[in-house]
Amino acid sequence: MSGAQRRALVTGATGLVGSWLCRRLLDDGAHVVALVRDWDPQSELIRSGDIQRCTVVSGRLEDYPALVRAIAEHEIDTVFHLGAQAIVGTALISPLATFEANIRGTYNLLEACRVHRDLVERLVIASSDKAYGSSEVLPYTEAMPANGRHPYDVSKSCADLLALTYAASYGMNLAVARCGNIYGGGDLNWSRIVPGTIRSVLEGRAPVLRSDGSFIRDYVYVEDVVDAYMAMAEAAGRPGVRGEAFNFSPQRPLTVLEITRAVLAAMDRSDLEPVILDSARAEIKDQYLDAGKAARVLGWEPRYGLEEGLEATVAWYRTFLRDHA
């Protein structure tokens, strides 16, 4: 999906993946409309100046008329739905706000696209491995049901089911992306292990782990996720893609302690010993994905190994934190 003729709406445009996705779309010549709830000058989209190349629509996912306005007035043909309340801990503290943004926000957007299906040709819905909930059988495959139990996980399960409903009932060209833990420059949610560890080290402190360090996760670099979303948009109308979910993962699951030590190694600070709090609540212990379907159907494979991705990520934060010292 490329070319100046494309008119793309990106929700969650100022977030980690949204910032990198907007840049890719802009560089490919697309006209990008960014839905922005709050103006955060630290967002990579704003900090980089890329937002100056976008059309900005101010609004919230919970505001249905704002979504209709964004699609209709800007004649959108491609929608990337990345907007969400994305922090597990915040969802536990504030489930209502999370459900409003992640569930109501998703069906508002899907309905706005259905009403204007004469314009909207394809949708990519960004989900998460959390949509699967906890499972004794791993890795997750797309054949497993959405089965969240905790607030954040349930919000993603519901959003997935809503998206697939619109594909099945109305024939809309959409696909759902379920990614592991995404890392890369621009993630300012410091409670997450990669940015939190990098900031701690740059401030001369040992990293702090909320869990006992044994939780297992996938870690996928942000530019590989952008590749995935672009591949899905290109193929959204194809049989075997329309109305389907796809897992995206480097298929190299790591414990929290292992990813922390990998970050420390990338920063030449393997001498620092992580502080283990073992205080995590409402988090699934082990999660990792089988990405074979994405490879077979979409031809997607990660371009970045862990070491390469962490090197680029650490470099971004060194610059960012130096500029904001």
Summarize the structure.
The protein is an alpha/beta fold and 325 residues long.
Features:
11 helices; single chain; alpha/beta; Rossmann fold; 13 strands; 16% strand; 7-stranded parallel beta sheet
Structural summary, described in words:
The protein has 325 residues and is α/β, with parallel strands linked by helices. The protein folds into two domains: 7-182 and 220-248, Rossmann fold (3-Layer(aba) Sandwich), CATH 3.40.50; 184-216 and 252-286 and 304-323, UDP-galactose 4-epimerase, domain 1 (Alpha-Beta Complex). It is built from eleven helices and 13 strands. Strands 3-2-1-4-5-6-11 form a seven-stranded parallel sheet, with helices on both faces. Strands 7-10 form a two-stranded parallel ribbon. The chain has a two-stranded parallel ribbon with strand order 8-13. The chain is globular, with a radius of gyration of 19 Å. The model has no long low-confidence stretch (mean pLDDT 95).
SSE diagram, text form:
Elements: E1 7-11, H1 16-27, E2 31-36, H2 44-47, E3 55-58, H3 64-73, E4 78-81, H4 88-93, H5 95-115, E5 122-128, H6 151-170, E6 174-179, E7 181-183, H7 193-202, E8 208-209, E9 216-217, E10 219-221, H8 222-235, E11 244-248, E12 254-255, H9 256-266, E13 275-276, H10 292-298, H11 306-323
Parallel strand pairs: 1-2, 1-4, 2-3, 4-5, 5-6, 6-11, 7-10, 8-13
Antiparallel strand pairs: 9-12
